[in-house]
Amino acid sequence: MSSYIVMFHDDTSDDVVKQTKKEITDFGGKINKEDFGFVLPGAFEATIPDQTFQKLQSSISTSATSGLKVIEPNGTVKIQA
Predict the structure, then answer these.
(1) Which pLDDT band, with edges at 50, 70 and 90, does 65 fall under?
(2) Angle at the Cα of 60 from the Cα atoms of 57 and 46, rounded to 5 degrees
(3) pTM for this one?
(4) Among 38, 31, 44, 41, which residue's Cα sits nearest to residue 71?
């Protein structure tokens, strides 16, 4: 299992977000952080089993109704001036 940031399109309903979280936890994952404030509204950080990650990742490219925008590995972001 790895840690990911899960982001949705702006017009995604709360029900879709809740269902995605439920799917992650039903298959052994864990929601670690749910509030990124105005920076990433609707986004959350989760530890996701590999098989569940692959399923969610494929729904981004195959379903326009999934609401998912991107699932990316969680990590440190460095900014240089």
Answers:
(1) low
(2) 50
(3) 0.83
(4) 44
Tell me the per-residue pLDDT of 15-54, one tens digit each, with 9 for 90 and over. Answer: 989 999 999 999 999 999 988 777 777 899 999 999 999 9
Q: What superfamily does domain 2-73 belong to in CATH?
A: Peptidase S8 propeptide/proteinase inhibitor I9 (3.30.70.80)
Domain positions in the chain: 2-73
3-state secondary structure of 28: coil
CB neighbourhood size of 46 (10 A):
25
End-to-end CA distance of the chain: 34
CA separation for the pair 80, 38 (Å, rounded): 23
